[in-house]
Amino acid sequence: MFDVSLFLRHNFARVWALASEKLTSLEIGYVSSVMVTELLSPSVGPHQPLNHIRASILPGILKLNLSVDYITDAMVGTISKSLVSLTHLDLRDTPLIEPRITFDLTNSGLQQINQYGKLKHLSLIRSQEYIVTYFRRVNDLGILLMADKCANMESICLGGFCQVTDTGFKTILHSCSSLYRLRVSHGIHLTDLVFHDMSATALCMTHVSLRWCNLLTNHAIKSLVSNTHLKVLDLRDCKSLGDEALRAISTLPELKSLLLDGSDISDSGLSYLKGRIISSLVSLSVRGCKRLTDKCVYALFEGSSRLELQELDVSNLPYLSDNGILCLAKSRVPISVLRMRQCPLIGDTSIMALASMQVDEDRGHGSSLRLLDIYNCGGMTQLAFRWLKKPYFPRLRWLGVTANVNRDIIDALARNRPFLNVASHGEELGIDQWDNSESLHMHDYDDVDELEQWLLEGEFEDDDEEMIDAEINPEMFYRHCFIKKLW
Which domain of life is it from (predicted)? Predict the structure, then answer.
């Protein structure tokens, strides 16, 4: 790993001329589009005669993953021409200002993609991290020109194509018969009509993400679930979706991941999942679904057994309280990732319930959790931090808390658990800059090497004065007994 910004442009190209021809995958966290273009252009090398044309750089690359300042026609065209074996192209830009036409992607640039016909995965994402901006110079014609060369494409991710309408998106669905993964974000003109005749296509999609597509309604989901083999469904920030969409989703027998952030679902709508797909779901997110209350937890988990759920996000739910988390802990679901940030009614009792939770008799209290995000939970006090120390939550690796509770307590907790990553400024845990959750990949937080495991095994044999103090604290003892009584 090295910092690309340290290289002058001509030196950057010279360095890559030394790269092994066996290199097949390259990911660069940030590089300018001009540097990429100059790197791959078969131009005259520095300090060489004019009749000496530089050999192709990186001839064996199959997968290219770049974060750039601007995705441009020149860069896309150069990549398509130079990397003759490319099967995966993943480009993301983050403009600081609205790009001029010479530094932007247009219909002409899209037409140059996949010139050798080997591309299986294409991702073109315009991030809105700094300003609200889109690919304003691409319309349905550009998508049509691209689709003509992408009939064998298996995965397509498009983000920020504000001028593309149902016509363009429908062209992809009807032209790419091998498509199994579709992701569209900020599709501001994408409506239910795109999926109106899904059953008439030969598609068998397993991964679909339609984030920030606010014109979609329940009717679109009813058509989409004709793909009965769907395993991942990301409908975050589709604000018009409600309980009827959940009724349709509940018929998907193989669904593993369901993301419904910001939708208009209710407690009764979420109950459609129980007895059908909740037993097979691995990841569920209902962040920011304002109508949900403690009843949604009861509807999903009360009386359930042998659930596979590993990741649950109930953040930003104003009516979720400790009672809901008590029900979750009582169900003994083997959750490894629990996010409940910015819930004003969540307090110390929830942490004590989770710390006392046993997934099975052979494992310790709170043993399944690897990530816990309780940032800005309204009822959290210093008491909760005592339950975050050893020996509780022995597998916890990521913790999100609020810094203003007490800086000294947070520092003491970090010293008490040296392998715990504590975030206290509101940052999202376990998500890198490319947001793997959007890319529909599952996280693995249980990364413990042999040395760490050996040290952890020895931790529980040591005397912990702070933990002893916590155990004899009468207030904690009373609350602990209270939780046990509720169970």
Answer: Eukaryota
Mean predicted confidence (pLDDT) in 375-396: 89
Q: Helix 33-40 vs helix 73-82: angle between axes, to the nearest 10 degrees?
A: 30
Q: What is the pTM of this model?
A: 0.86
Distance CA 340, CA 313 (A): 6
User: Residue 59, preceding bond cis, omega within 30 degrees?
Assistant: no
Task: Tell how far CA 114 is from the center of its chain.
Answer: 27
Q: What percent of the chain has pLDDT over 70?
A: 82
CB 413 within 8 Å of CB 388: yes
Give the containing element (helix H, strand E) for 63. Answer: strand 63-68
CA–CA gap between residue 159 and residue 92 (Å, rounded): 9
Q: Where are the alpha helices (DSSP H) in 265-308?
A: 267-270, 294-301
Task: Name beta bridge partners: 371.
Answer: 337, 398
What is the arithmetic mean of pLDDT over 65-77?
96
Query: Among 148, 157, 23, 228, which Cα is nearest to 435's?
Result: 157
- For the segment 39-61, the average pLDDT, to the nearest whole number, is 64
Most confident of 132-141, 385-394, 460-469: 132-141
Q: b/e for 200-226, b at 16 or more Cβ within 10 A?
A: ebebebbbbbbbbbbbbbbbbbbbbbb
Q: What are phi and psi of 348, to 5 degrees?
A: -60, -35
Mean pLDDT of 366-371: 83
> Residue written as tokens 């050996």?
454
Q: Does residue 231 have a pLDDT over 70? A: yes
